[in-house]
Amino acid sequence: MEELVLPFVQGEDGITYIDMSKLHTRLQFNRVVLVIISFLVDKYHGWRFQQILSNAGITSTEDLFFEESKETLEKLLSNNLVQQDFKKYERKAEVVSIDDFKSRKN
Length: 106
Known about the structure:
This protein is mainly alpha-helical. Helix content is 43%, strand content 8%.
């Protein structure tokens, strides 16, 4: 069985951020999709399952059989309903002066 990867970073704003750089396999992407869908089932417990999938932007009239799990997760994380609680974690580059950089190398 593949190792469980936990790519979640809790933000100070109450939103759970997904560190996409920690995800490498279809199974890992699928597990994160399931966590988000499970969260939505709990949050919107009065909704029907297909209603949750539709409102989260998962279902479509087109054939998505060949859509990769990474694409599904990207689509899910770009949905307004999901973004209330989950967002993609974007690492910010640390700004340093050239002197700081040189001193770190030594």
